[in-house]
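To fix ideas at the outset, we first show an illustrative case, written as a sequence plus integers encoding its fold:
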Amino acid sequence: MALNVKILEGNPEKGDIIVSPFGDFKISSNSLYTEGIGPCLSIALYDPIRKIGGLAHISGFHPREALSPEYIIHSMVAEFGVYQKLEAVLAGESLRKDRISNIVKRNLALLTIPVIGEDLGDSGFHQGRALRLDCPMEEVTVYRLPSKIYK
């Protein structure tokens, strides 16, 4: 069964989740969450057979080599160990001219990991996103966060 991908407007409910901080990734069989995805890129990987997921939040300019766009997919896949099938969802890159997602997509294709959903680029009045990967429910939700207007 494929991962269900939803894109919603508004703020998420956080609940009991593991947070994947900026510049890092986490692997879990529970729910994973990251927020503050503006010009950054968030990558969700999911193994539907083992119901294990991974979530990364990268800027594309992070000094840690394993979190650079060129190496992030290989680093995450190595943490999964043996896998039969992985699926990917990408979100982010608001107000960003260069697309680090192109590098990530190329690496995913080399490993025959399909991108089954994405929400990339400027999303109108929304400047940022949050992403929740719920492994037990086999669901990824991308939240388009409302813009903050300062006077």
Q: What stands out?
A: The longest helix spans residues 100-110. The chain has a mean pLDDT of 83. The domain at 4-146 is CATH 3.30.1330.200 (60s Ribosomal Protein L30; Chain: A;). The first strand starts at residue 4 and ends at 9.
